[in-house]
Amino acid sequence: MQRGQVLLVDTNIVIEAFRTRCWKALASHFKVETVEECFKEALTGDPLRPGYLAVDPAALSSGLSARHQVSKLQRIELSLRSPLAAVLDAGERDLLAHALGRGDSWIVSCADRAGVRAALELGWEERIVALDALARAAGSRAQFKRHFTEAWLAEVRTAYKLEGRLR
Amino acid sequence: MNELISKRLKAARERAGMTQAEFAERMGFRDRQTLAAIEAGSRKLSAEELLRALKVLGVELDYLTDPFRLVGEGRFSWRTHRDAEAGLLDAFEDKAGRWIALYRQLGDARVAPPSPLQPRLALTERSTFEDARAAAEALGREWDLGEIPAQRLEQRLRERFGALVLYVDAPPAISGAACQLPGLNAILINRREPEGRRHYDLAHETFHLLTWEQMPPEHREGEIPRGGKGKRVEQLADNFASALLMPERTLLPRWESRGRRDIHNWLNETASALLVTSLALKWRLVQLEWLGRADLMQIDDARLTANGRPKRDQPVPLLFSGEFVERLHAGLCRGDISVRRAAELLGLTIDELAALFRERGLSVPFDL
Fold first, then answer.
1. Backbone angles phi, psi at B189, to 5 degrees
2. Of all helices (H) and strands (E), which one includes residue A68?
3. Nearest residue of chain B to residue A74 (CA atoms)
4. Closest CA to A38 of A105, A93, A106
5. What is the CA radius of gyration of chain A?
6. Between chains, do B5 and A79 touch, taking CB under 8 Å as contact?
7. Is the ipTM reported for this complex over the cut 0.90?
8. Do β-strands B184-190 and B174-181 pair in parallel, antiparallel, or remain unpaired?
């Protein structure tokens, strides 16, 4: 995890980064990128519903180094490589479909057990990083919900290994 | 290749009315055997070939890959009001099919494989209404439904029939549905309906599931013309439901001890005790010939509305069912579905999804 490295984030990560106010720190330390579907999801929701957290569209856009469109062919390639991708939501799936086609040294942050499992199935164990570790590297001291911590990520990795599915 | 894609590809081709030879030609394969191998799962499709297949078949990628969707399987019979729009029903059926597919997909077949045997009622379209009522009385005894069958019916459907019963938030024009698919029978009940109506719907849909092979119900009951075969099946189902929930053995001592009580009060109190509607009880007494035409003239249906109680006092069941929510909980704990996907399929926010587990006394399997 290096300064200026491409960091791919999904909707959960964006929302938690805004909740904990570490978005700006992350965006200045890494080249934060996402896909169009996650961008839309992060800004969607009924503000009157309990638990709604507002994500400022301008702050989200200005913090992103890139926002990628994902083609049907990319989605198909992911489906053929990872049956687990089918249990994810549209944004989570698109982020993996985009990552699958990249050749550079990107890293990805994900806080959903099924999402992490799909990434592990694709052989990306070394590329998945917990949000708390990323925020620390970016100089933030924010406190995160459990699914965004290294401890939680380690648990999911271990459980996956115990299933004997890790390559 | 993913087994699901092979299976769905075949289902999509058949739905499009294409033979293997026709589809193989449109795909640009050299021979039909190539496609046969793909459909059998023994030859992989490339991404470009799959993209072409989607175009030829006119389907979206999700149609071939989404495990939380019923494709080429699942037969529904809906209980709707006459004014329910077809578009509304189609949209709700799509949603309901996803709930049922979700439940099936997250099940662990190693732990509880579905029984290869399915109970069936020995009734046909030629059976009389008396036959349907006798079958209901007998089933009530066999399933040990007790004095108040509505209390135990749902549990017995799960235990003896392996059926999934879901209480859902459906548009007001939709009362419920029966759904049959390989290895799983399901009944959906609009949980906002009055309590007595919900139990009646459950008993009515039970009839359809137990007679589906010999009397397949119409897709939508509200549209069945009078005098047709479908109407006969629905009348049999109503007679069955009525006798199942209000068996003669339960009614007789209550009827005989009613004394000189006002019939409206007696109907309201007895129906409330049996968890049915007073109107359904009135018609059950007519079936039993304990009430005649002259008696009916004395009954004011307005006094039977909501069993004579204020409507707001009616309890509403928790959303879906205990087994459904427990299975979803286990699936999320294993990472067999993402939290956002689960919330989207159930039409809930992530916080509402958390509340769904809490109200069933379960831990929330995520902290997002």
1. -130, 130
2. strand A66-68
3. B47
4. A93
5. 15
6. yes
7. yes
8. antiparallel
Of the candidates B53, B51, B69, B65, the one whose C-alpha atom is nearest the C-alpha of residue A74 is B51
Chain A hits for B334, Cβ within 8 Å? 113
Residue B326 in contact with partner chain A when CB distance is under 8 A: no
Q: Spell out which residues of chain B touch residue A114, defining contact as CB-CB under 8 Å.
A: 335-339, 341
Cβ-Cβ contacts under 8 Å, B44 against chain A: 80
Q: Which residue of A has its CA nearest to B336?
A: A114
**B63: closest chain A residue by CA:** A86
CB contact under 8 A, B338 and A116: no
Give the pLDDT confidence of B208-267 residue by residue, as tens digits.
999 999 999 998 886 566 666 778 999 999 999 999 999 999 999 999 999 999 999 999
Cα distance from A77 to chain B (closest Cα, Å)?
A: 5
Contacts of B344 in chain A (CB under 8 A): 89
* B20-69 confidence digits (pLDDT tens): 999 999 999 988 999 999 999 889 899 999 999 999 999 999 999 999 99
Give the Cα separation of A87 and A116 in Å (integer).
Answer: 12
Interface touch B50/A88, C-beta < 8 Å: no
Q: In angstroms, rounded to a whole number, what is the distance separating the alpha carbons of residues B63 and A1?
A: 38
- Token pair listed for B210: 């137990």
Task: Output the tens digit of pLDDT for each of chain A's 167 residues.
Answer: 899 999 999 999 999 999 999 999 999 999 999 999 999 999 987 666 666 778 999 999 999 999 999 999 999 999 999 999 999 999 999 999 999 999 999 999 999 999 999 999 999 999 999 999 999 999 999 999 999 999 999 999 999 988 876 54
Select the residue of A79, A116, A145 nearest B65 (Cβ to Cβ).
A79
Q: How far apart are CA B180 and CA B202, in angstroms?
A: 14
Report the distance separating Cα A99 and Cα A94, nearest Å. 8
Interface of A with B (CB under 8 A): 11-12, 16, 41, 45-46, 49-52, 72-73, 75-77, 79-80, 83, 86-89, 91-92, 111-117, 145-147, 156, 159
Count CB-CB contacts under 10 A for residue B248. 16
C-alpha distances in angstroms, B47 versus A75, B11, B52, B172?
A: 9, 19, 9, 44
Structure tokens given for B124: 């046909």
User: Residue B160 half-sphere exposure, CB side, CA atoms within 13 Å?
Assistant: 17
Taking each continuous run of H as one helix and of E as one strand, the counts in chain B are: 17, 4
* Sign of the Cα pseudo-torsion (B341, B347, B351, B355, in order): negative
A25-40 b/e (C-beta count within 10 Å ≥ 16 → b): bbbebbebbbbebbbe
Is residue B7 a contact partner of residue B36, using CB atoms and an 8 Å limit?
Answer: no
